[in-house]
Amino acid sequence: MKIGNKIKELRMMKGLTQEELADRAELSKGFISQLERDLTSPSITTLIDILQCLGTNLKEFFNDAADEQVVFKKTDYFQKDDLELKNRIEWIIPNAQKNMMEPIMLTLEEGGSTYPDNPHEGEEFGYVISGSINIHVGNKVYKAKKDEAFYFVPQYTHYITSKSGAKILWVSTPPSF
């Protein structure tokens, strides 16, 4: 099994030179160099020492779990149409409710709106992609149009309406959609 490249990636992620890793693991720089090029293999004890210096262990190092998805395509989106409120919500990062923030694409038809959201801890951010919207925060109404952004701390009941229709990117933390 070739492990050299994986060790090199871990070393570089930690910002260590081969010499620094060698010093920490009490090995020679030449050994680390050969190991990273798969020209030599370490004993289990030596590998454990190297991995400990890199902040990991054998179990994590050899875990072949798939990398977490970073890029999401339109086919990954999850969509919900609300005929009553005349809106469509597209979760552009599936399962984002497990994260600190939840970005969605919100499309409001003419006369569309969102349900009022009660005050909560966190933040709300949005960017108007097309159309114009009214952002209702407490008893105040703010207007935003294409290429404008909004941000507020949701201390009051809040919702969005659009008389003419709009598409916005909306990011909420903690997730509330």
Structural description of this entry:
- This protein is α+β, with helices and mostly antiparallel strands and 177 residues long.
- The protein is built from five helices and nine strands, in the order αααααβββββββββ.
- It has helices at 4-13, 18-25, 29-36, 44-53, 58-61, and strands at 78-82, 87-91, 102-108, 112-113, 123-137, 140-145, 149-152, 158-162, 166-173.
- Strands 1, 2, 3, 4, 5, 6, 7, 8 and 9 form a nine-stranded antiparallel β-sheet that branches.
- A hairpin with a 2-residue loop joins strand 5 and strand 6 (140-145).
- The radius of gyration is 25 Å and the shape is elongated.
Strand-helix topology:
Elements: H1 4-13, H2 18-25, H3 29-36, H4 44-53, H5 58-61, E1 78-82, E2 87-91, E3 102-108, E4 112-113, E5 123-137, E6 140-145, E7 149-152, E8 158-162, E9 166-173
Helix pairs in contact: 2-3, 2-4
